[in-house]
Amino acid sequence: MKYKLIGLFCIGIMLLSGCTKMALRQGTTGQSVEITAEDTKAAITETVMDDTAYIGEYLDSDVNEPNLEIAKGENGKYIVQIGIYRLTWLDDGIGELTADGMSFTATDAAGNPISGVITIEGETAAVTFTDSTWGGLENGSVFKYIKASDIPNIQSY
Questions:
Q1: Residue among 101, 97, 90 nearest 73 (CA)
Q2: Which residues contact 13 (CB under 8 A, 6 or more apart)?
Q3: Percent helix, percent strand, percent coil in the chain, to nearest 5
Q4: Cα→Cα distances 42→37, 99, 124, Å
Q5: Whole-Å CA distances, 8 to 16, 54, 56, 127
Q6: Alpha carbons 22 and 90: distance in angstroms, whole number
Q7: Is residue 152 within 8 Å of residue 85, measured between CB atoms?
């Protein structure tokens, strides 16, 4: 008897696990919409890849001067230039959109790699350094910038 119950239980699980699509009712028209895993993945990718909130020129919140520039680069990457008042200018940053924000890597004043993430909330960009060996910028340091323009002013050196 135990084996029959276990067998029926296993068959039930196999039948239920074969369902890969979920149907949702929409309104009172009786139409249904199928949502698949591919649809969900595409929606998440589209949300992550919306770069319009990032691209532009930002003013340093302390001195009201342009100190953060983000522009579209090549191969899906971004040009990131970060100025920190009276501390440093990182002019060779390369950024990439992720689910956490825009991750970037640049070269610090000592010539070593430095990286972090830029997040956007409204018109404010927060630059958080996550991997720094330079004494002037400790890991976890956060600097805020206010968006001034949707058009970046990338400096060439």
A1: 97
A2: none
A3: 20, 45, 40
A4: 9, 13, 27
A5: 12, 55, 61, 56
A6: 48
A7: no
Identify each DSSP E strand in the chain by its residue range.
22-25, 32-35, 56-60, 66-72, 78-84, 88-98, 101-107, 113-121, 124-131, 142-149
Contacts of 36 (CB under 8 A, 6+ apart): 20, 21
Q: Is 50 helix (H, G, I), strand (E, B) or coil?
A: coil
pLDDT digits (tens), the chain, 157 positions: 555 545 555 565 555 555 444 434 344 445 555 555 555 444 444 444 689 999 999 999 889 999 999 999 988 899 999 999 989 999 999 999 999 999 999 999 889 999 999 999 999 999 999 999 988 889 999 999 999 999 999 988 6
| Predicted TM-score (pTM) of this structure | 0.69
CA distance 89 to 86: 9
Hey, what amino acid is at 119? T
Listed by start position, the domains of the chain span 2-48, 56-149
Residue found by looking up tokens 């919306």 in the block: 50
